[in-house]
């Protein structure tokens, strides 16, 4: 692991994050902000230039990440609190879930300052609740009858013994109409349109009745007034 302090600011030695989605979003000002914050930390900082997350080191205290599903699951697996800075897509949903569950905090990529980043880091590292919460979910994740490798071996051996036809889902043999229930959608849409048409006819009938009554009343009033006028004259 390498301290961020002392890293160069030019050329290929400039600290950064590799990955098309990440490097396209984090400009030089943001990178300088992170460099300034990391240089003030007493902890060692590993700032990776590639997109592969490695949070399994036993001394890892915090993961600062854009919130991809693989990195979040890896952090939960190893019980590492997170600071999520979502950039696009489902990363926002992951960041919200992490914050709601108390496993970390979310920062807005458009409002990253030295103060906000440092405050978030200090909050997650110094407040034990984040470590406790993510460790709780890590324990849940690990509490399974089989480890992932054991489960993979089991199913491979199962298919080798019995074949995989009985595991083939029914949907694999459905045509497009059956798979996406096009016939059901057409039926329900037709039913809704029919009910709307019936409602339209009913409202139209009610409107005509109201108009006819109003016209009849006006006619009667007019006839009465005319008769009164004739009597007076």
TrEMBL record:
Protein name: Putative UDP-glucuronosyltransferase 2C1
Entry keyword set: Glycosyltransferase, Membrane, Transferase, Transmembrane, Transmembrane helix
Segments crossing the lipid bilayer: 179-198
Membership in a protein family: Belongs to the UDP-glycosyltransferase family.
Coiled-coil residue windows: none
GO molecular function: UDP-glycosyltransferase activity
